Amino acid sequence: MADFTVGDDHFRIDGKPVRLLSGALHYFRVHEAQWDHRLSMLRAMGLNCVETYVPWNLHEPQPGRFRDVAALGRFLDAAQRAGLWAIVRPGPYICAEWENGGLPVWVTGRFGRRVRSRDEEYLGAVERWFAALLPQVVQRQIGRGGPVIMVQAENEYGSYGSDQVYLRRVAGMLRERGVTVPLFTSDGPEDHMLTGGSVPGVLATANFGSGAREAFEVLRRHQPKGPLMCMEFWCGWFEHWGAEPIVRKPAQATEALREILECGASVNIYMAHGGTNFAGWAGANRSGPIQDQDFLPTVTSYDYDAPIDEYGRPTEKFRLFREMLAEYADGPLPELPPEPVGLAAPVRAELTDWAPLGAVLDALGDEEAAPSGVPPTFEELGVDRGLVRYQVSVPGPRKPYALDVTGLRDRAVVYVDGVREGVLTEENSALDEPVAGPAEVELWVESLGRVNYGPRLGEPKGISGGVRHERQYLHGVRARALRLEAFEKPDALAGVAFAGAGAAGSTGLFRGTFEVSGAAGTGHAGLELPDWTRGFVWVNGFCLGRYWSLGAQRTLYVPGPVLREGVNEVWVLELEGAGAPYAELGPGVPVRTDTPGDAQV
Predict the structure, then answer these.
(1) 290 partner at 20 to 30 Å CA-CA among 332, 359, 404, 493?
(2) Catalytic residue check, 97
(3) Interatomic CA distance for residues 569 and 469, integer angstroms
(4) Options 154, 232, 446, 459, the catalytic residue
(5) pLDDT interval class at 517 (50, 70, 90)
């Protein structure tokens, strides 16, 4: 048993000063069988603490339906086995480049702009969530012999709002549910963010990637006493589909980290190990003027240019960080655990079975919603990840007119009388060719990830406006959802009517097998789909996430624990156009040694 406190100048354990050298590692972005290895890597880098967010939407996908909340407790136990303290950031909002910033679809769909405010109904949902979650934290606090030393109240609230009543209520809920360790907030080192996001009596910390001295000067204006801490030292950055990779030179990141430590501050390296946005949980961002923002979906990899790469391997950044952090250690640093190994030789999964999208929807889709005057959004259908097929009739006879979709989020493959006519997006929402009536229109709409940061948090997905022919809205819309969650069920594909191999350019569900020897359990692989366009991949029923020919990511990470000795099965759900009739698996992307650019963080 020990006592962790916030002093006037330092953090203290049983009264003795201590500096927190923490690293972010999200348990939900790493296969559970790999937690011990990744946490050992944190220790070997010279860290004494691990930090994790908790995604509400992962654990309560529907009201009152809780799913594996105990995973957080198991992760905290693993942290303790590794000799690490733990910082927990339970939200309710987490950002984290995660779908909807961690808020469940049923929360943002029901409460809209009332989320993250003092609204009593919203706070009631938060309180029920905390009641289910917090026992995992409370029983593992340091005062009870566990690793948990601090808990965050909300997350970067100063970047969103200024409702001090709400922040106090969140902090109060944490205390009422038994959290006795120090609470903290974290915000950018700017006056408006710290005034909006700080709570009197709760430690304020700052998030930044460089300029520690200036950042801490701003923090001191708002908090004259208390230990200084950078709660998110951005040593890299995340990436968006269709954008250039973002990298940060190891030497530059190391010097920025050194500046933090020279200020006498504690630090949490974000990310120490990023992991992967498995199963379509990647979020999205908006950029540009608030009324006309570009939509930027986040890629599946959350490598983050972190010192421990997506495959669990040390990088040049790891080596430099370890050398510097050794100067602040009480003794010699632990040796590195054995490095994960990839497939010894490339293998090919021949995709021999195929089912069209309609057959997949018939087997795994929801019941079709009753025809409605306007298209129901994903939120109204209760859909988080996946796609929805909308069907609507163009009455006739009538001349050809433009057909467009207002409020499309995010991407629709459109068929007219069974013939594919184009792919629409929010920015390009009209078909190139006009449509005559009568005609039957199908729109297969996919959400590419919900916004996780900023004022457009919680915006609806699907068709939030309507389908128009000329200026006339088309009514009587029918909608049917195909959820990614449906593929997680045991024997999920038992009812799918597979035919022969699918042709190049077709859409639907493809299935094949490959054989593995020696990499199952502890190794890893990288999977690529030559000339395929966009969709999702599963290996042995485990969803690796989204692939997209748009770039910047070509290879999907396959955790070793997912692989089996002998025969393995792969499924590919292609939504726009299949390529070569196989998937390729190899050892994965090369380990990073140095990087050519430098992210401005």
Answers:
(1) 404
(2) no
(3) 44
(4) 232
(5) confident
Q: Is the peptide bond before 147 cis (omega within 30 degrees of 0)?
A: no
The secondary structure of residue 134, as a DSSP letter, is: T
Alpha-carbon distance of 283 to 277, in angstroms, equals 9
Q: Determine which one of 51, 60, 99, 156 is catalytic.
A: 156
Distance between first and last Cα of the chain: 39
Q: Is 316 one of the catalytic residues?
A: no
Mean pLDDT for the stretch of residues 63-90: 98
Parallel, antiparallel or unpaired: strands 203-208 and 183-187:
parallel
Other CB atoms within 10 Å distance of the CB of residue 436: 14
Write a three-state SS string for 207-253. EECCCHHHHHHHHHHHCCCCCCEEEEEECCCCCECCCCCCCECHHHH
Nearest to 56 by CA among 104, 100, 113, 119: 104
pLDDT score for 520 = 67
Q: How confident is the model at residue 293 (pLDDT cuts 50, 70, 90)?
A: confident
Q: CB neighbours (10 Å) of residue 129?
A: 23
Cis peptide before 324 (omega within 30 of 0): no
Q: Distance (Å, rounded) from C-alpha 49 to C-alpha 267?
A: 10
